[in-house]
Hints:
The protein has four helices and no strands. The chain is an all-alpha fold.
Amino acid sequence: xxxxxxxxxxxxxxxAGFIFAITTYNAFITPWNWSxxxxxxxxxxxxxxxxxAFYLIxxxxxxxxxxxxxxxxxxxxxxRNPREKGYRRGVIYWITxxxxxxxxxxSNPDIRQFLLGWLR
Length: 120
């Protein structure tokens, strides 16, 4: 096993690939009607395209060395501890967004009925 905090990166990538494969299978097993799996598949495709375009632009500007430098910079950012104040603000921000989205979704009777039927 490798030393350091990044020995588990390949496991996270494997889990993400598995989730993408399951979502892709569920998206194309039924006719297209924008189900949850189909919407998630489109979202994943947009995210993958964005990341690939981001690194393609870096590669076009500086070549392989620029991409390696960007990866090294990203790994250094993972190692550093976030400032406590910024970390707390981030957590509070995402909790607030989650609560607001939950209440806004539950205020719509069609979505509320769908969720209640789905939970049964």
